[in-house]
Amino acid sequence: MQSANTLVKKILRSSILPFAAQHGMKKDFFPLGRTLSLSLCMKQDNSCGPSEKIDLDGWKKVMKSGLQEVSETVSEHKELSNLAGARDLLEMWRLAGRCVPENITEEQLKAFTECPSKSAQRKYLKYLYLKELYKKNDKRKMIEKKARRLEEQEQDPKLDNTKKNSFIYFQAKSVDKAYNWRVAQSMIFGQSLVFDMSYEKDMSIREVTNTVRQIVLSESVNRRSVDPFHIHFCNLKEDSLYQKEFIKHYRESWSRLLVTATDQCYTEVFPKDKLIYLTADSPKVMKTFDHDKIYIIGSMVDKSIKTGVSLARAKRLGLETAALPLEKYLLWNSGAKNLTLDQMMRILLTLKDTGDWKKALEFVPKRKYISFVNKPVHELKKTLNLINTLKLRKRQEEIRKQFAKSYSKKLTQK
């Protein structure tokens, strides 16, 4: 077999290669690489130049890039057609008398198309409709207020409202300067407080907007306090939903805001042994406020109450956690022990200033607890259980009496 193979190879070399050499072809007629040699000898002229080589890998890259461009254009056309269809659908719903906003942006329209179900779409549209309605009402009230003020000026021209307004404006401006000076001092000498902005994926667009509103409220509360915190927005990515909502709220003053905003994690900015993550799911209860520690608040508002998300994040990073001692000082009524971000800010500021838990926990909504604890908690729970059992017994007796009365009436009727 080997001798036969060698004979075939010799025949090929003796017959094909000289033929190729006569007709102006190179010896790499059967190339090992992925190149295609095209001879120019197919022309009528016998005097042909060197053969041209086409790189197949390069050709494939060019074809793939062309296909990518085509797919991108197709996806863009699809997105545009989807948005146009969504606009037509909303117009039909508006004509049908459904709760649909009159003006809707492209971002809101994209969010509407990305909703997982029809019920979610309806809820989102209702939210936008109510938001637009509140804005219209506010505008109407402002116009009415201006009209009333003009009427009062026409009726009594002696009133010098210009002086009053200028004085109020001057006073407000000076007070704002004083607040800003305090915050500027806290940025150098004050205690740091971190807002963890890494929960965008765990929330819907509506929940993110609510979160940013609460953070804006807490920032204003902090600015007006006697000894404000130095606020850090950590894990705040550029062009994220958080940042877009902040820019919507603050507008031009976002760049001048006296807070530290960074895309870095708090573990990269501060030492780990100084960080304490405040979460309602923590097994450790906070006893006293530590002025040397840096407290972290998770910037998350979830209506579905996803338990353990912030605790899992803190454990993953190897941080110390703590929960507010709500059960120790408050006789809890019902519901989850989650508070809003502005409530947390108020509680921490009062603790920082006074160190009194009772004063601090006055900012907890009164619907969530029955009263402050004066006796030990286990005794109060026993009394509550007794009251509930007595109530149940009374109700059972009333039901028995009602049943006996109705049964006796039926017997007399027969």
Automatic annotation (TrEMBL):
PROSITE patterns: SAM_MT_TRM10
UniProt entry tagged with the keyword tRNA processing: yes
Gene Ontology, cellular component aspect: mitochondrion; nucleoplasm
Protein origin, superkingdom: Eukaryota
Domain (SAM-dependent MTase TRM10-type) ranges: 179-371
UniProt entry keywords in alphabetical sequence: Coiled coil, Methyltransferase, Mitochondrion, S-adenosyl-L-methionine, Transferase, Transit peptide, tRNA processing
Enzyme class: transferase
Annotated EC: 2.1.1.218, 2.1.1.221
GO MF annotation: an example: tRNA (adenine(9)-N1)-methyltransferase activity
Repeat listed as a keyword: no
Cellular compartments annotated: Mitochondrion
Catalytic activity: guanosine(9) in tRNA + S-adenosyl-L-methionine = N(1)-methylguanosine(9) in tRNA + S-adenosyl-L-homocysteine + H(+); an adenosine in mRNA + S-adenosyl-L-methionine = an N(1)-methyladenosine in mRNA + S-adenosyl-L-homocysteine + H(+); adenosine(9) in tRNA + S-adenosyl-L-methionine = N(1)-methyladenosine(9) in tRNA + S-adenosyl-L-homocysteine + H(+)
A GO BP entry: mitochondrial tRNA 5'-end processing
Listed name of the protein: tRNA methyltransferase 10 homolog C
